[in-house]
Amino acid sequence: MNFFEKTGKMALGSRLRLMTAKITDDAAKIYELYDVDFSPKWFPVFFILAESDEKTITEIANEIGHSQPSVSKITQEMITAGLVQENRESADKRRNVIALTKKGKAIWKRIEVQCTDVDAAIESIISEARHNLWEAIEEWEFLLEQKSLLKRVQEQKKLRESKDVQIVAYEDQYQAVFRSLNEEWISRYFKMEEADYKALDNPKTYILDKGGKIFIALYNNMPVGVCALIKMNDPDYDFELAKMAVSPKIQGKSIGWLLGQAVVNAAKELGASKLYLESNTSLKPAINLYHKLGFKKVVGRSTPYERCNIQMELDLGIFTPIR
Fold first, then answer.
1. Nearest to 218 by CA among 166, 160, 163
2. Rounded to whole angstroms, how far apart are CA atoms 51 and 111?
3. For residues 318 and 204, what is the distance between their CA atoms, to the nearest angstrom?
4. CB 3.0 to 4.6 Å from 97: which of 9, 33, 54, 157, for a disulfide?
């Protein structure tokens, strides 16, 4: 298997298909060995019918994890082979159920003997192997059900690309991008308001000179994201997380997460006990990000923004971001 040593785990699907092809080829020969005229692909449907008097296509598909069209095709092939019949004598005439024919039941008796030998043969492989493939497959099925291979690759891609993201402190050269990135997303979903212009047109006066901070996310040295920590004149909150924006051309690299962490860490360094933010529930990715950072919803606060319909706070004393 020098090829798979070269490709590594990238060729997992190809390697599994190759093994499946070998086992399926042997399975066809095993049926011949026991003088059973039977296609290996029929077995899951055939087994379910052998275990019950009758089943619908939908019931079988659900039990074996196949699609209904796939089960329908296999069923028609077995009907042609005389192993299965559509049961028109079902008590419920609305249900098109299928069942084994007398020929099918007779073949099942022979397959049961064959299954005993196959089980013993597989057990012998398990005893010779260092790893129990049968148990491993069950474990992999469970893990992939919890999180698909696609999702896991997406996470690794995001993690790798996020390493090329650098979070830096605001400088005057970033004023234009600070404004443009925020104006872009606000105008796309809502409308610019007076409070927006105050912060975006005069970030030094409105944010920095009052004790706040602004962070810029650089991807390959290009500014692609921004976020501000704004000092609040409020008895309940020290700072507000605000004006977070990431270029839509470069999303999916954990830039929002990195900016959020930078703001939260800066607030803690400044001795803040609570952090506040305002948003809109239609911005689902943003709301999910805030929840991951540890923010929780609060109510009863006044706001200068028409678009605000949710307010959240983060108790920095129990800051536990969710990854």
1. 166
2. 13
3. 31
4. 54
Mean pLDDT throughout 154-173? 88
Q: Are residues 196 and 106 in the same domain?
A: no
Dihedral pair phi/psi, residue 99, rounded to 5°: -155, 165
Residue-level pLDDT at 323: 47
* Same domain? 46 vs 101: yes
What is the Cα–Cα distance from 264 to 317, expressed in whole angstroms? 11
- Residue 256 maps to which CATH number? 3.40.630.30
- The total of structural domains in the chain comes to 2
Rounded Cα gap, residues 173 and 253, in angstroms: 24
Cβ atoms 244, 279 nearer than 8 A: no
pLDDT beyond 70 at 93: no
- 232 and 212 Cβ atoms separated by less than 8 Å: no
Residue span of the structural domain in which 132 resides: 34-146
Domain boundary among 146, 174, 204: 146
For the residues 125-141, what does the mean pLDDT come to?
A: 93
Whether residue 171 is found in the same domain as residue 303: yes
* pTM recorded for the entire structure: 0.64
